[in-house]
């Protein structure tokens, strides 16, 4: 494949689809550059003073890893000065982060989970950064949380970086999904997979089985049928994978199919499920749908959910279309 850089790809996408105005292209390139910096920090491991927990908690009440805080700071600092953003929001920050007055405000809003899969950091398992881009409402004054309350279908771009054996950036601006691999020698992102498409059918599922006794009936039924394999109604055997890094599980599904599930369960009191709508489910749902897959909360298309709180959680079923439709149909019965 002819070597195409991220910049060349974005310029060509703009020519083809007129979907990447200069400010959005700048935003994507700044985020991609920040992911390079995060990859470098992650790669240091024990050789840098970056492993282990910070002595702080985030809004989710989760103990923050040092790299959670470092990654969040990298994304904030990289995006503040460019003039392309009006505000940012992060899993690691309780409230939104308006652009400081000393910098010009732009027309986009960036949401991110700066380092997803933190429990895997200290044991050298793939982790990632997830990001979502919304347009600031017309005539918006000082940004507020309410300005971020837009359905996932309003996203103008979404992507993730996965820090694994290779560092990769997966990106969509609404015209398909493309994947870039970081050339560490040149420090540049190189297009390595065009128009990724998720296989319609699959033999692999991803779920944390230790929660099985807490699942509601539709999920119990669906997973029981997968486990019954060729001896049951599905008539074929299935395999299971659970990396406990959403980015890594989704990347596998983009490449070879599968269904990823983080359902609500009987323990949920305040909010259903574990994953957050605005900066995990929504960007991943846009990517998955752009790659021919499907993403629901069991009943509703993820991208149609009207958000009401920045850090709200949502059940997630995403991946190969036929499987997501099947498990969603069980919820409808
Ligand atoms: P569990 C990581 O903490 C995360 O938010 C997702 O990346 C991942 O899919 C999920 O939680 C893992 O959750 O309950 O299996 O540890």
From TrEMBL:
The keyword Metal-binding applies. Binds 2 magnesium ions per subunit. It is found in: Cytoplasm. Substrate binds at residues 116-119, 208, 274. It comes from the Bacteria. Residues 198-331 form the Fructose-1-6-bisphosphatase class 1 C-terminal domain. Its EC number is 3.1.3.11. InterPro entries: FBPase_C_dom, FBPase_class-1, FBPase_N, FBPtase. Residues 5-193 form the Fructose-1-6-bisphosphatase class I N-terminal domain. It catalyses: beta-D-fructose 1,6-bisphosphate + H2O = beta-D-fructose 6-phosphate + phosphate. Mg(2+) 2 binds at residues 113, 116, 280. Its cofactor is Mg(2+). Pathway: Carbohydrate biosynthesis. Its main location: cytoplasm. Pfam families: FBPase, FBPase_C. GO terms for molecular function: fructose 1,6-bisphosphate 1-phosphatase activity. The keyword Ribonucleoprotein does not apply. Keywords: Carbohydrate metabolism, Cytoplasm, Hydrolase, Magnesium, Metal-binding. Mg(2+) 1 binds at residues 91, 113, 115. Homotetramer. Belongs to the FBPase class 1 family. This is Fructose-1,6-bisphosphatase class 1.
């Amino acid at each position: 494949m002819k070597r195409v850089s991220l910049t060349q790809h974005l310029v060509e996408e703009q020519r083809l689809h007129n979907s990447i105005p200069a400010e959005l292209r700048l935003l994507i390139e700044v985020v991609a550059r920040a992911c390079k910096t995060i990859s470098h920090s992650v790669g240091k491991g024990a050789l840098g003073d970056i492993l282990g927990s910070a002595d702080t908690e985030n809004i989710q009440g989760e103990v923050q890893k040092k790299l959670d805080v470092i990654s969040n700071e990298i994304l904030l600092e990289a995006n503040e000065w460019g003039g392309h953003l009006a505000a940012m929001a992060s899993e690691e920050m309780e409230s939104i982060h308006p652009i400081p007055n000393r910098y010009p405000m732009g027309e986009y809003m960036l949401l991110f989970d700066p380092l997803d899969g933190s429990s895997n950091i200290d044991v050298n398992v793939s982790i990632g950064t997830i990001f979502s881009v919304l347009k600031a409402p017309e005539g918006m004054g000082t940004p507020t949380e309410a300005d971020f309350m837009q359905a996932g279908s309003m996203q103008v771009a979404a992507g993730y970086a996965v820090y694994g054996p290779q560092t990769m950036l997966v990106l969509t601006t609404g015209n398909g999904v493309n994947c870039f691999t970081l050339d560490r020698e040149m420090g540049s992102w190189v297009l390595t997979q065009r128009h990724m498409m998720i296989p319609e059918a699959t033999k692999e599922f991803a779920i944390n089985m230790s929660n099985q006794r807490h699942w509601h009936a539709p999920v119990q039924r669906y997973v029981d049928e997968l486990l019954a394999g060729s001896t049951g109604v599905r008539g074929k055997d299935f395999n299971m994978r659970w990396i406990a890094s959403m980015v890594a599980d989704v990347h596998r599904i983009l490449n070879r199919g599968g269904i990823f599930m983080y359902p609500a369960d009987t323990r949920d009191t305040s909010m259903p499920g574990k994953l957050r709508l605005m900066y995990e489910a929504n960007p991943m749902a846009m990517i998955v749908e752009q790659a021919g897959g499907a993403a629901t909360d069991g009943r509703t298309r993820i991208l149609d959910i009207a958000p009401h709180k920045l850090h709200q959680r949502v059940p997630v079923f995403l991946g190969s279309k036929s499987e997501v439709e099947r498990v969603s149909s069980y919820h409808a019965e």
